[in-house]
Each structure stands twice: as structure tokens, then as C-alpha cells.
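URGENT: need a sanity check before tomorrow's submission.

F., can you look over the E2 ubiquitin-conjugating enzyme record below? I want to be sure the sequence and structure line up before it goes out.
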Amino acid sequence: MGGRGGGGQSAGWTTTLWTGHSSTSDMANIAIQRIKREFKEVIKSDEAQKCAINVELVGDDYRELRGEIAGPPDTPYEGATFQLEIKVPETYPFNPPKVKFVTKIWHPNISSVTGAICLDILKDQWAAAMTLRTVLLSLQALLAAAEPDDPQDAVVAKQFKENHPLFLETAQYWSHVHAGVPKGNSEFSKKVRRLMDMGVGEHQALVALSSCNWDMDRAIEQLFS
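C-alpha cells as predicted:
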């Protein structure tokens, strides 16, 4: 009896494993089919025709995408183009895609170091009815309407709240350096070059100066202390 019971348990365990594998595979197929449809939706959208948003495959896997959004008008990001890394989980659309900025940006809700994003629809406010287009347009809207009281980058949020004109200039300068905006603040450029002449890398100099409100002495102390 004991031997037969053990055999029964083993067979049941094998069946359970197989069923779980099938379920996971089905979920992955749902995710890929959904993403293929949404990919086409973005490509054919009015926003894509106006070069406001775009998405492309990184390789052959529809779960690895590169998104693109244009900086909104009347913001320090106007004229900029921002690249996004989009990773789609097998549980999509029941869980949100993982999205981060590849292009460096100065914004309270986006990490100036990692590109991580603080946006509710990419976390607990995600709904299965949302799409890639929804995500891209929501991120574009975030650039125009920052939430400094719920920051991803506390240093940027502090500048945003305490010295908003300087924040706008700094964000515009980052857009110039990293995101294709033609014109940048010439005084900022001089300060960055001075630090580069001391052997500091361009982006490292930019981060130090930005986080020190463009105070050269404080930036030098931060870098060399």
C-alpha cells in the first residue's frame, strides 16, 4: 500500500508541474500577442505620425522594446527626444511593463542616476486595459506635470520646489547635453568645461553642478573631498 501511495503522489506531482508549465506558457503567449497588437497601435497612432511617441523592437523578442517620447512643448524638455527601455513581463497585461529612461533627464519623478520612474500606473494603479500607447503618453504628460511631493529623485525635487527658475534652466541644459536640444546655457557650459579641465568626466561634472545649484565651489568640494 505504501509503495502504491508513493507512486500516486509522484504522478500527481508530475501532473501539477506540467500544468503549471502550461499555464506559464499560455500567459507568455497572451503577453506576446497583446504586445504585438499594441506595438502596431503605437506605430499607426496619430502621435507616432507627429513623431511624439514611437516604439521599436530591440531584437526578435516582443518583450524587449525601446520606446521614444518627444519632450512636450512649453517645457524645458521641448525639442528633446528621450529613449526608454521597456521590458514586458510574461504576466502582461495583468502586470505593468518595467520602464526606465535610457536618456539622462533632470526631473523630480525620474532618477537622474538610474532612469527609474515614479509613476502610479507603472505600479499599483496599473489596469489591464492600459496599453503601450497609454504608458508612452502618460510619461510624456509626466514631463509636463511633475509631482515634486512624490519624487523619485529628492535632489531634483528640492531644486524644483526651492528654486524653480534654476530647475527649469538645469532641466533644459540636461536636454541640450543628453537629448538633442540645440541650445544650452553658455554659463553652465563654461562651468562644466572647468571641471572637465580638472579631470572630471562631463556627466559627472554635470551631476555635481546641478545638485549644487551650479555653485562651483560646492561642486568642487563634493567631487574632491
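My own read: The longest strand covers residues 64-70. Confidence is low (pLDDT under 50) at residues 1-22. If you see anything odd, call me.
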